[in-house]
Amino acid sequence: MKVAIAGKGGAGKTTIAGTLARVIAELGQRVVAIDDDSNPNLALTVGVDRNAAATLDGIPRDMLVERTDADGTSRLVLAVPAEDFIDRYGVPVRERLTLLVMGGPNHGGSG
Amino acid sequence: MRGVVGGLVEGASRSTIVDLEAGLEHLSRGTARHVETLLIVGEPYFKSLETASRSFALAKELGIGQIRMVANKVRTPRDEDTMREYAARHGLPIATVVPYDDAVVAADERGVALIEYGPSAPSVAAIRRLAEDLLTSGGAPEAPASR
Question: Most A CBs within 10 Å: which of B4, B51, B108, B124, as the mutation test of the A interface?
């Protein structure tokens, strides 16, 4: 299942995302909850200490590779398989549930 | 890190739940391409619904397959009617209705996860139903939009 959750600030987006991730893990699926909000709060709603869930801002550059699109914009993409990346940088929350916090404003150097 | 989220969603062999930036302006085509279901969380008042329908239009443009609204913080049957009527008028299917729930506020005040504060709270029960729907049907709407 590949789900993304959107909503205005305060609408309850993060509460629903975090609770949904927990429930899906309880139902027996392996799941990674990815916090892509520049004001990351997902840690709390999945039930892990915020300080335990450091952001990926300081990720080593050899994990990422710069790719230039046809329109000339460049962006960073994964240089390693996604599962390896999740295992390495994800925070274990519960059985089958891992949290990844992408980072603060601008998500670090993509443009 | 923009391209990274899309790569994670694409490459992960496990389920992925992405909590996006508020508003969809920053959602990249790369991420959108690999997302099967987008849930747009809306509240039962006009401005929130307007925002939801803007996100809906943008998400359609980005080519996301299934787009559903989560009708959140619903206090009264009238709230629910308002949301269903608005959603039907805009062709936006409702995935689930989550009742307004004091447990959400209380969990937030205490700084604990909702599911730990109130594992059987009504809001959690609604999210459980949503999860089951997503697992069985990939997120089909709970009922055909009427009206």
Answer: B4
Give the pairing type, strands A97-101 and A91-94. antiparallel
Give contacts of A 75-94 with B, CB under 8 A. Answer: 75-78, 81-83, 85-86
Q: Is A53 on the interface with B (CB under 8 A)?
A: no
Residue numbers in B near A61 (CB within 8 A): none
Contact yes or no for B14 and A32 at CB 8 A: yes
Range of the domain at A38: 13-107
Helices (runs of H) and strands (runs of E) counted in chain B: 7, 4
Q: How far is residue B57 CA from its own chain's centroid? A: 15
What confidence tens digit (pLDDT) does each residue in B48-68 have?
999 999 999 999 998 898 999
- Tokens 């039907």 correspond to B88
Q: Is-contact A98 A90, C-beta < 8 A?
A: yes
| pLDDT, tens only, A80-108 | 999 999 999 999 999 999 999 887 544 44
Q: What is the CATH number of the domain that holds A34?
A: 3.40.50.300
Q: Complex ipTM, two decimals?
A: 0.91
Q: Chain A contacts of B73, Cβ < 8 Å?
A: 11-12
Give me the residue spans of the domains in chain B. 1-35, 36-147
Q: Which CATH code for domain B36-147?
A: 3.40.50.300
- Number of domains chain A is built from: 1
